[in-house]
Amino acid sequence: MREAHADDAEVTSAALAAASGDDASLEFFVRATQRDVWRFICHLGHAKTADDLTQETFLRALKSLPRFKAQSTARTWLLSIARRTCADEVRYAMSRPRIADTVDWVAAADRHVGANNAWQGIVELNLLLDQLPADRREALVLTQVIGLSYQEAAEVVGCPVGTIRSRVARARESLIAASSPATLRSVN
């Protein structure tokens, strides 16, 4: 899935060079990883704040870059920072008073009745992903959307590889069950 990206060895080398003050390597590191970080944050449920959280992730990473020792790939290391950034955002949001969401979903849906079927499919997929428990959604996104290996995903999440495999398998089962024609008919 990551063929269009720079390979992990290049990204890790760039991160190490950037830690030594190489500006060109820093630019390469950020460009090579920015899309994955943003997509990961979106799929963790932070689509509205993905830009800000991506920026915060890179700010944290740049401060920590001199301590990066390449014990894992730079991409894995960076996604771990993104995960912690999202967790911090959730903790912060939970400590603040909540404001009621005033979006009129029916009116919004009516405005987009003529929308392209591709967009409808993306929306339906996102709705299915949103129904997954957070740990399963996270494992599925890391391995199937971003393209990390199970080992790399386990490093990002901080759990055994077998746990990631189990979460991905259960997520797939849930998605298949939720998208079956019988289930879709009962929802509609």
Automatic annotation (TrEMBL):
It holds the Pfam family Sigma70_r2. InterPro entries: RNA_pol_sigma-70-like, RNA_pol_sigma-70_dom, RNA_pol_sigma70_ECF_CS, RNA_pol_sigma70_r2, RNA_pol_sigma70_r4_t2, RNA_pol_sigma_r2, RNA_pol_sigma_r3/r4-like, WH-like_DNA-bd_sf. One of its GO terms (biological process) is DNA-templated transcription initiation. CDD domains: Sigma70_r4 (cd06171). One of its GO terms (molecular function) is DNA binding. PROSITE patterns: SIGMA70_ECF. The keyword Manganese does not apply. Keywords: DNA-binding, Sigma factor, Transcription, Transcription regulation. Residues 124-175 form the RNA polymerase sigma factor 70 region 4 type domain. It comes from the Bacteria. Residues 30-93 form the RNA polymerase sigma-70 region domain. Belongs to the sigma-70 factor family. ECF subfamily. This is RNA polymerase sigma factor. It comes from Gordonia crocea. The gene is rpoE.
